Amino acid sequence: MNAGEGTVPTGMLAAAAATFRRDVALAFRRPGQMLQPVVFFLIVTTLFPLSLSPQLSQLRDISPGILWVGALLSSLLALESLFRADLEDGTLEQWVISGQPLAVQVLARILAHWTVSGLPLVAAAPLVGASLAVPASAFGTTMLLLGLGTLCLSGLGAAGAALTLGSRRASVLLSLLVLPLAMPILIFGARGVDLAILGEPTRGPLLLLSALTILTLSLTPWAAASAVRISLE
Amino acid sequence: MATWTWFHKLGSPPHVYRIAGRFAPWFGWGALLCIVYGLFGGLVLAPPDYQQKDAFRIIYVHAPAAWLSLSCYTAMAVAAFVGLVWRMKIAHAAAAALAPVGASFAFVCLATGSLWGRPMWGTWWEWDARLTSQLILLFLYLGYMALRSAHDDLQRADRSSAVLAIVGVVNVPIIHYSVYWWNSLHQGATVMKADRPSMPTEMLVPLLVMFLGFTLFQLWVLCTRLRAEILDRERNARWLQEQLREGA
Amino acid sequence: MNQWASFGEWLAMGGYAAYVWPSIGLAIGTLLLNMVMARRRHAQALQRALRRLAVDGNGNGEA
Lengths: 233, 248, 63
Description:
The structure holds 3 protein chains of 3 kinds.
Chain A: H1 12-29, H2 31-51, H3 56-77, H4 84-88, H5 91-97, H6 102-131, H7 139-163, H8 170-181, H9 183-198, H10 203-232
Chain B: H1 2-11, H2 13-45, H3 59-85, H4 89-121, H5 129-150, H6 154-186, H7 201-233, H8 238-246
Helix pairs in contact in B: 2-7, 3-4, 3-5, 3-6, 3-7, 4-5, 4-7, 5-6
Chain C: H1 7-12, H2 17-57
């Protein structure tokens, strides 16, 4: 990975880092758009107390489910636009002809997407948790689990977003493709939060979710990369 | 060498078209025989279960339907893989031909599971691990078919849905495991298990025959639909025109 | 066969008729539906191909 003779570093990791920086910088130029999933998260999680009951003891029982369903739906929101603009302005073609491994570029895109859409959700989790009577002692684990879960979902979502490029009604289709695949994330994540609220050891779900995230991030970039190639053919 | 020519023939539409046409009747009549015998054996000859009485007879359609839906998905993913890696068009056609059968039997499996659950559990739906993972499998099928129909371009539809089928089949064991894990946490021993350690022969044989019958049926549908796909996809090919002139 | 005293008893399925028969019916219905749809799909494709052949066979090329 040396920089070669020119001043601009070239290489797989340098290209990936450049993609990552570009994506994050672009997102920060539009903070309003970046915050939309967080606002959606807050609104969705408000619906549950209003539709069920304001009793904190009852809310505590179902709060892991609310937190996770809310977080999954919110991070789905930003997924549709993951590759669309780049398909339209030709960036994706540049990726393909740049000679850099496409999957690594996609992985950089996934990480950038998670930084600007997943991390804000994680940051908002204590706020939502407090409103759902999650004890403060469980905040740390909840945030860790949500971070892993949203990262995993960004990976799955990248494959889904790349597959629906150039198709009709892409946003509904994307949810239809990604949500069934995301069910293990929901299961492990919600169980972990549940255990954290009860004050029990959360190692099991935490490890399972970590394994799932590593597996997803090592496989979905390839799937997304081949889907991007198909959409360019 | 021999395996490669075989593989090559498998990829050539004229060959597959003829082979599928030749085998289809065998699969079809075999399926009919097996299913008729299996139903007779299961519904008439087999003794009632000591615990579930005659309600257990639902298993003669429920279990083969579950098998069919899972084997169709696996076959679809294998075909998708072959189609993607070796750019074999016929494999994509096979994947397209398999999806509707698998999806419909995933639904049959759920509905019969629910009908069995009503007298056994007392509810139409129980969040049982088996049924839940079958439900997710149905969702995977629906997503696959939706993605296929969302692309206007046939090649793009083929290749995109192939990627999805592969991603899906990698996920199936994970989903299966996670659902069982989830289920074991939340369910006590109240749920009755459908599997017994040993089934008497007169119960087991019709069930195995039903499995065989459903598999043959799946192959028959595959052959028939595959021929239709080839007719549509190869419509400009000379061999097809000659074949049709001779009389299909 | 000795377990069923009469045809009516067989139909009653030990009181589970309301669950057994719909299951069987649904399965057979789905088998038939798949069969009909596959055959129709094939017949339509064949029809299309033959129509094309007829048009091309007249030497006109364009339809």
